[in-house]
Structure formats: structure tokens, C-alpha cells
Design brief:
The chain contains two helices and 13 strands. The chain has 197 residues and is α+β, with helices and mostly antiparallel strands. Helix 1 packs antiparallel against helix 2. It starts with 8 loop residues before the first strand and ends with a helix.
């Protein structure tokens, strides 16, 4: 007999093996703990099993925010850590008005490039918003995408140039004057973006 009132938990008996299995559907971290199986013989037999339910952690490349030029392509990649086997990843898009929908392929606009990755093709202001990936109701990673006019310098390009400069440590990289100018341009563009209605 099963001593619980949780509909997610059930016992399955394989009669020809005299085997009893405890099944837990939609396991959550709160299901972690000790489970005891007993056989009511004259000398009681029992076995205790420790269960640990682990929730994988998620990360999206470029998070928490990506600043992109209109017309450019953006790759969204969700990385799962702590999963012992293949994990289903769901992607969602939340528009600036708060509406949320599951991400799906759209010809010439959204292409799935792998199990946990998508490409947004030739983004425009309508592509802006929050993109999230999830493997479970209790774990979600979010990245915010902002799209600006094509002539502005995307954050990703500036970041790459900064990395090149700091990793080289020589005059072969960007000059400090160029670096400061570009950072000033980027900051002014970011302020303009934030002040836009």
C-alpha cells in the first residue's frame, strides 16, 4: 500500500517478478528525501532509499542583454549544466507589451540551429524583447534583446574589440585613444536608446 495523498506518486507492480516500483511524476526538488519500502513479515523488512532531485542550471550566451544592429543576425544558445541525460529545452519570446509565446521557426526570420539554439535572421525593432529558455518550471534563463539602427555600434562588436585589446596587451591592439572614443560613442548611443519612447 502507498502511504501518501499525492496524485503524482504511485506504485507499479510487476507480478511475474514480484517487484514493486514507486513512480514519481514531474519530480521537483521538494521530492528529495528518504523513501522507505517495507515488507510486513513477522520480522519487518525495510529498505531506505535517498532521493536527490537536481534541477539543471541554464545560461544563455550574451545574457543578461544583447544590443544588436537592425539587419544583423543573432544566435541564441542555451547551455544546460547539471543534467545527467539529454534535456528538452523550450524557448519563449516575451514582447515589450508583456505577451509571451513559444519560439517557433518562421521562414526567413527564425531558424532553429540545434537542440538548444536558434538564429534570429535580419533582426528589426519587432525582434526586441525578452527571450527565455527553460527545461523545467523551476529553472529559466532570460536574455533581453535591444535592436538599434544599423549605423550604431553593437555591444557585441565593442566587446570583441575590448577583449582583443586587453588580451593582446600590446600596441598591436586598439590604441587607448580609439578605445576611449569607441566607449564614448557606445555610451552615448546607449543613453539615446534608453531615452527613446
Amino acid at each position: 500500500m502507498l502511504v501518501t495523498f499525492d496524485d503524482r506518486i504511485s506504485i507499479e507492480k510487476t507480478s511475474y517478478l514480484s517487484q514493486w516500483s514507486l513512480n514519481i511524476k514531474y519530480a521537483t526538488p521538494s521530492d528529495s528525501g528518504q523513501y522507505e519500502c517495507q515488507v510486513s513479515t513477522e520480522h519487518k523488512l525495510s529498505k531506505i532509499v535517498n532521493l536527490s532531485v537536481m534541477v539543471p542550471s541554464l545560461a544563455i550566451d550574451g545574457s543578461p542583454s544583447i544590443l544588436a544592429s537592425a539587419g544583423s543576425n543573432i544566435t541564441l544558445k542555451c547551455t544546460v549544466k547539471g543534467a545527467s541525460n539529454a534535456t528538452n529545452i523550450s524557448w519563449f519570446y516575451q514582447n515589450v507589451d508583456g505577451s509571451k509565446k513559444r519560439l517557433k521557426e518562421e521562414k526567413g526570420k527564425i531558424v532553429q540551429t540545434g537542440a538548444g539554439s536558434w538564429m534570429l535572421v535580419r533582426v528589426d525593432p519587432h525582434s526586441a524583447g525578452n527571450y527565455s529558455c527553460s527545461t523545467h518550471t523551476s529553472n529559466t534563463a532570460i536574455v533581453t534583446i535591444n535592436v538599434v539602427d544599423g549605423e550604431r555600434i553593437p555591444e557585441a562588436m565593442l566587446e570583441e574589440e575590448l577583449k582583443a585589446y586587453t588580451s593582446s596587451g600590446t600596441r598591436g591592439g586598439l590604441s587607448s585613444v580609439t578605445l576611449l572614443l569607441q566607449m564614448g560613442v557606445f555610451i552615448s548611443q546607449l543613453v539615446t536608446l534608453l531615452l527613446m519612447p
